[in-house]
């Protein structure tokens, strides 16, 4: 989230898409209702009418998978009607940047595409530069090669009529949504966009969010109170786990994972640190060498930097290590063992039967959980013969969340400390204790027996226990960072000497010379003289109280900043675009309000001022984003499985760079009469994730006891299905049963002149419990993914539904 939960109440218009926030994020949704109480409009765009829709001022249906068509039409509507916030667009985005001669777009493909590699040469999307190496710009936005004009040309195809034909959304509904939200594109108003997995779990998931971001940049809604792009996470600590390197391609703090060509820390810095020739760009990632050096030292404080860096695992260049790729490799026998820690991939992974088959090819597997799961007992599940499964499975019972102490970071980047409500039951242990003891044993074995590469294990800092029990405070202090050597630095204009062991006050003081360590630079400042995440102070200045910043309540990364890119909330002179709800203001030579995105003067100061988007190398919001694997602008592509054989925008039906695999379960249904219905998975309030906890809670199971399939009355009549009947859903990957819920919440779409039906199923069930509860919806989903992240396409795929 660029903003935070409370800030939603400051919005004048809230667009919710790919989410049923009222049911799946009810605590956060209350802030949308508070905004509505003050006159804000709520817009809900979804294939299904839900409790969120019931609260909305504007609701419209959208066929799953057609989101970029919807947003492409929105971009065209804004440009065609001159509804963009011009001063913001010119001063704070790359709309004025001029593209080089290599950039082109034709028939659904951008320039630089290699059909053999199914990949783009991104150098074809470079900006034109002058003799001094600076990007050429046209502040008038008239140059035909400037981003603004390229954007206008690109989305000129996305007319209301054409978008309506492919999405199934009526033209009048499209116009109402566009008109209502575009009204925020003036200085005194702001609009926010809330999204969830309905936007991301697609082969164009990243570009879906990019399209939203382009709209928000055009309307001047980034960095302001009540604005931003805000993700509704599926768990309380998704943000925290991502911050701390849950994903393979990043280290903690979003540092790129090194690959094998980066043989030294120096080479790593040279290859990953962005440069700029523009003196007004803060180019904050230019500090990456400081953060990487401090991270290495957090692991290996007694080693020199190059040695510590050599211990880090390196990726093979060009190899995909994402979730789907990992299980595809496991299916081919590439793994001997697997830890399934606090997860249930036998139920949660797309193409779940393939996942279960892959696990059968392991030598061993360890599951760490609070109940038996489909993963831990896959070997005795549907379609499995235990006598033919060689995998030895170990189960380690762990404590639940309220039996352990530590922090979580919510979607709004608030790091909040939580205390144990009670001691773990029986022989269960907190995850931290299990990890700590496991590594102690592993290190002892390395010391005794040796190994292929023992030094990274033997030399790792592992002082994270007190009285032989895992100590979350010790970990939090290292994440924050400490000085390893005596260092004298400027603090508030005066010299201050820090001793070894002193906490690092903020990431601005991290060093490249190995004198500081930090396990995660964005969390530097979270545990200094006290545990900042444990604060519960509601004090605010009158200015902060206008928008509810609450700077003393817990701690937000980075440096307790509550709204990211908040330098864009003021004009180039530092005056708030919205004085009635200011985020920051330049007053008497300093910033007041929120912690500013850098302490420099406003942009109008051409010598000392900086652009607002400090994490971008050129300091501007990226309307044109040349870093993505599937194009610098979002282009509409159908899901890999879809009900249409062509679409009106181009000759390229699907994302040409989508992550795909080969094999008998990798056949995709396109206009296949055997699988005529669009299907999407979703959540319900009563269950959580794969249901491991909630299916084992009798009162929740009583509320939602079985797998079900929602369908329209029209589809039910066509197939002779009655409400409550048992039905079979089939895809090219497998089948499962469900109870039919016939409801007007779902309605058929008219797409390209054809009637298209959509059904929906929850993904919380599995075969372990209850015995008559059904199985995972992910049996039906294809193992195809976004080319940038590898996230699977579980929100739009093709099935058949028939009465059992």
Structure, described:
The longest helix has 19 residues, at 431-449. A hairpin with a 2-residue loop joins strand 20 (487-491) and strand 21. The radius of gyration is 26 Å and the shape is globular. It has 804 residues and is of the alpha/beta class. The mean pLDDT is 96. The chain folds into four domains: 6-231, Dimethylsulfoxide Reductase, domain 2 (3-Layer(aba) Sandwich), CATH 3.40.228; 248-316 and 472-533, no CATH class; 323-409 and 414-463, Rossmann fold (3-Layer(aba) Sandwich), CATH 3.40.50.740; 677-803, Barwin-like endoglucanases (Beta Barrel). It has a six-stranded mixed β-sheet with strand order 27-29-28-33-26-32. Strands 3-2-1-8-9 form a five-stranded parallel β-sheet. Helices cover 24% and strands 16% of the residues. This is Formate dehydrogenase, alpha subunit. Its EC number is 1.7.99.4. Its main location: periplasm. It is an enzyme of class 1 (oxidoreductase). It comes from Solidesulfovibrio fructosivorans JJ].
Element layout with pairings:
Blueprint: E1 13-17, H1 21-24, H2 26-37, E2 41-45, H3 51-55, E3 58-60, H4 67-80, H5 86-92, E4 105-106, E5 109-110, E6 113-114, E7 119-120, H6 147-154, H7 160-167, H8 171-182, E8 191-195, H9 197-200, H10 205-218, E9 229-231, H11 238-243, E10 250-251, E11 255-256, H12 265-272, H13 288-299, H14 305-311, H15 323-331, E12 337-341, H16 345-348, H17 352-359, E13 364-369, E14 392-397, E15 406-409, E16 414-418, H18 431-449, H19 455-458, E17 465-466, E18 469-470, H20 472-480, E19 482-483, E20 487-491, E21 494-498, E22 516-517, H21 542-545, E23 555-556, E24 584-587, E25 590-593, E26 677-682, H22 698-703, E27 708-711, H23 713-719, E28 726-731, E29 734-742, E30 749-751, E31 754-756, E32 758-762, E33 797-803
Helix pairs in contact: 4-7, 4-8, 4-10, 12-13, 15-17
